[in-house]
Amino acid sequence: MAQTQTITQAVERLGYRVTVGDVAAEAGLPLMEAQQGVLALATEVQAHLQVAESGEVAYVFPQNIQAVLWSKSWRLRWQAAWEKVWRVLFYLIRISFAVVLILSLVLIVVAIAIIAIAASSAGREDNDSGGGGGGGGMVFLPRFWLGPDIFWMFDPRSDRRRRPRTKSEMNFLEAVFSFLFGDGNPNADLDDRRWQSIAQVIQANGGAVVAEQITPFLGDLGKGWASDLEDFMVPVLSRFNGLPQVSPQGGIVYQFPELQVTAKARRTINPPPFLRELPRRFSQATSGQIMAAIGLGSANLIGAFVLGSMLRDNPSLVADLGGIVALVNSIYWVLLGYGSAFLGIPLVRYFWVQRQNGSIAARNADREQRAEVLSQLTDDQREKLAFAQTLTAQTVLGTDDLAYTTETDLTEQEIAQKDKIDSEWQRLLEERQGK
283 — phi, psi (to 5°)? Predict the structure, then answer.
């Protein structure tokens, strides 16, 4: 299913008339997978085939390809419905961490207040029974300041009341999840970008390249003989059906015939100079949201320690109170653990992100250094590039030299082909008579 979506998107970007090589290059797929996927998709949506006289095949897909797939596949309809449900579920999961934090803090504050009031009342009763003056009996509830207008945190759209909100900005409930776990791996599509960039380099250079043009997009090149013999090019050759060619001076050039065939000439391809990994961000939440999350987490943890002390110092009082106090007493270690984890997980993740970014920067610098080799070529490298230029080619499958197409009836095509041949013979006869 995922591969079908990838190929469908590639076909749409390419303008619905494609070759297998076009799709493989656009999506970064192995040629075998691209061929199987294109054939399956063409069968599903009843695409047309155009066969050139050279034997190359182009596929013409309907421009309502998504609608055709939707109408035929219950799996796509189910997947679309599930994606909508999952977006809601995932949003609820994300905000649940903030909700639990706030509920935990509220429980802790209420329990502390109840125990404090009960302890104060018990103390006054003891004084009264000892003959002390009775006072007015007024009880003052302790006030715990939790910051201005804390209730805005419950409103997912609360920031809009205070300042303009950008599309990428998240509300506080979402920011808590981002503070805890981050916002995903920015390089999750790195492998896809790698192969797409390599295919673009191959196409931009006419289907024939040298290893130095590919290394800025690869990972570890190996050491010793593995690097000298360019073993790292084997996966590239396998993925795009490439062929090594040896120059007269013994240099190796890599030719990819199937990427030299395209359905139509497109604008000049400008691949990136090297594959750049994106650095990880600790959180996409604003600094104010992060500080608020740290403040609430700290208040929750400190409150848990205070509550724990009060529970230990007043065991008989806690047993008599029951209700919320009994509930908090039964889940105290859960509250304390959540408060500790709420601050501990981001702390550990912060140092992990810094370490990861150091590795990412080193890999980017290594690939950038490989790209700079192309600006300081040796004589051997210049010879290989010159030989590669002799192998470059681009076969554009136009619509004026087709041998067969499924868009029209076979009889009509045969008549049209005969008329074309007769017209060509007539032109040649007229030229000879003119001479």
Answer: -165, 145
Using CA atoms, how far apart are residues 263 and 212, in angstroms rounded to an integer?
28
Please state, in angstroms and rounded to a whole number, the distance separating the CA atoms of residues 15 and 277.
Answer: 29
> 3-class SS at 244?
strand
CB 280 within 8 A of CB 185: yes
Q: Where are the domains of the chain?
A: 75-126+140-185+280-330, 190-276+363-391
pLDDT of residue 164: 42
CA distance 37 to 129: 89
Interacting residues of 169 by C-beta distance below 8 A, sequence separation 6+: 159, 286
Mean pLDDT taken over the chain: 79
* Span 372-398, pLDDT tens digits: 988 888 888 889 999 989 888 777 776
317 token code pair: 């009082």
Sign of CA dihedral 139, 144, 147, 149: negative
- Give the span between the Cα atoms of 167 and 175, in whole angstroms: 14
- Residue type present at position 261: V
* Enclosing H/E stretch for 368: helix 332-372
Helix (H) or strand (E) holding 365: helix 332-372
Cα–Cα distance, 273 to 371 (Å, whole number): 6
Distance separating alpha carbons of residues 308 and 326, to the nearest angstrom = 13
pLDDT digits (tens, 9 = 90+) for 111-165: 898 888 887 776 665 555 554 444 443 333 333 333 333 344 444 444 444 444 4
Question: Residue for token digits 């803090």?
Answer: 105
Q: Tell me the percentage of the chain whose pLDDT exceeds 70.
A: 75
User: Cα 355 to chain center, whole Å?
Assistant: 21
Instruction: Please check whether residue 7 is in contact with residue 14, taking contact to mean a CB–CB distance below 8 angstroms.
Output: no
